UniProtKB/TrEMBL annotation:
Residues 307-318 form the Tyrosinase copper-binding domain. This is Tyrosinase family protein. Signal peptide: none annotated. SUPFAM superfamilies: Di-copper centre-containing domain (SSF48056). Belongs to the tyrosinase family. It comes from the Bacteria. One of its GO terms (molecular function) is metal ion binding. InterPro entries: Di-copper_centre_dom_sf, Ice-binding_C, Tyrosinase/Hemocyanin, Tyrosinase_Cu-bd. NCBIfam families: PEP_CTERM. The keyword Metal-binding applies. It comes from Mojavia pulchra JT2-VF2. It holds the Pfam family Tyrosinase. Keywords: Copper, Metal-binding.
Length: 437
């Protein structure tokens, strides 16, 4: 009996505390806000940044995000030629054209570290997390929302003057058999050049011609052939159903599509497709294989983070990978340990967090090396280090909901009821026994 009382007492006290922190609905029954507020602030050190579906953002959250992004674009760290935002562009550019300096790799071997191979997912996971942390130096409440491209409502939320600016204007393209479509420089909203969103010409270029693409954010939203929206959920489900990482990465990045029978089709899907849906792509049927020419900022991959929607799109790619991992593909068994080019294997260092092991090749426009931020030589990141995304300090709203509520609250409540029932029955038994005595 004594034990039961102690147990119940401790549980009751723990439930009340839990009640206050994690189950706000309960907390307000007779509890004053003051007390509640104090409890909440007690947990900042473990608080994960929650990444929400962009269509669930409040207008205040949208404003905060835009403000944080634009502050990074105008903040130039001491000793740097570039703003923090432009430094992130230089890093993305650099990762698409590296020269490996370390033994076993000849100097001429320019490699793509962040795309077209295994490190596409871990490299971007680290990259956008660093960007999110940079945003949080401006406003700690800000986190990266994700753009779920199966969500039909998202376009009308994202491409608006009160958020990430609308489609571009002023250029009409005629597509044989499809009609004419407009796009061009973005001319209104927070991300027009008139409102201060000016791209560095030496960091915004066509990767094939190495010609600068100028200083304006350019969009050809939903110009054919990348005009179908939203992406069918069944297409995403088919990608998420793949078990082999290499196949999964290629399908999520969007170079292939795998049907139910396992047949592979090459083309532009999922991640790559959405880059095209925003920036606009022109198909060049005269080349073999057929080639795509990017018309706008998002469809020229190296400079594509200059379109702020890049971060929402890649948060979604990262969310899908996190869901795939949580769905029976957790840990190092679901990432290649070897057999990939350097930078893509489980324990390879990923540039620029590689202690200076690789150097980006200069372009016709800029000596990238002189433009890059200093990365601490001890700041070393391998794919292995980012497989468990919760260790990076963020979580997705959907995962939060799916996650079993903290054992303390539910368990406490359930066991409390169970214990109460037990004690009740015991007491009854005792009473009966007592009566029989
Ligand atoms: Cu990228």
């Amino acid at each position: 009996m004594k034990l039961l009382q102690i147990l119940v007492k401790s549980l009751i006290s723990s439930v009340i505390i839990v009640d206050v922190i994690t189950l706000p609905a309960f907390a307000h029954n007779g509890m004053d806000h003051e007390h509640h507020e104090h409890q909440h602030t007690a947990k900042p050190q473990t608080r994960l940044a929650v990444r929400k579906d962009v269509t669930d953002l409040s207008s205040a959250e949208k404003k905060d995000l835009v403000h944080a992004i634009k502050t990074l674009k105008t903040t130039i760290p001491a000793g740097s030629q570039l703003s923090i935002y432009d430094q992130f562009i230089a890093i993305h550019l650099g990762a698409t054209r590296l020269i490996h300096n370390h033994h076993g790799h000849s100097h001429s071997s320019v490699k793509e570290l962040a795309h077209e191979n295994a490190a596409f997912l871990p490299w971007h996971r680290q990259y956008i997390r660093r960007f999110e942390q940079a945003l949080q130096t401006v406003n700690p409440k800000v986190s990266l929302p994700y753009w779920d491209s199966t969500n039909p409502k998202a376009l009308d939320v994202i491409f608006k003057d009160d958020f990430l600016s609308p489609n571009g204007r002023g250029v009409t393209i005629n597509i044989p058999g499809r009609g004419s479509f407009t796009g061009g420089p973005v001319q209104s909203g927070p991300f027009s050049s008139a409102n201060g969103w000016v791209l560095k010409p030496e960091l915004n270029f066509d990767p094939v011609t190495e010609q600068s693409l100028g200083t304006s954010l350019v969009r050809f939203l939903q110009a054919p052939p990348a005009n179908d929206y939203p992406l069918p959920q069944r297409d995403i489900d088919r990608v998420q159903a793949l078990d082999d990482y290499s196949l999964y990465r290629a399908a999520l990045e969007g170079f292939i599509s795998v049907d139910e029978q396992g047949n592979i089709t090459r083309g532009g899907f999922t991640h790559n497709y959405i880059h095209g849906l925003v920036g606009g792509v022109q198909i060049d049927l005269t080349t073999n294989p057929v080639s795509f020419k990017g018309l706008g900022t998002m469809s020229n991959i190296p400079s594509s983070p200059y379109d702020p929607v890049f971060w929402l799109h890649h948060a979604n790619v990262d969310r899908l990978w996190a869901e795939w991992q949580a769905n029976g593909h957790e840990g190092i068994d679901f990432y290649p340990a070897d057999g990939q080019p350097y930078g893509h294997n489980l324990d390879d260092l990923m540039w620029p967090w590689d202690g200076g092991m690789s150097t980006p090749e200069a372009t016709a426009l800029a000596d990238l090396l002189s433009l890059l931020p200093d990365v601490d030589a001890q700041d070393l990141v391998r794919p292995r280090d980012v497989l468990d995304y919760t260790k990076l300090g963020y979580i997705y709203d959907r995962h939060q909901m799916k996650e079993v509520p903290e054992p303390t609250s539910t368990f406490a409540l359930c066991s409390l009821t169970a214990l109460a029932a037990i004690s009740l029955r015991k007491r009854k038994q005792q009473q009966i026994k007592y009566r029989q005595l």
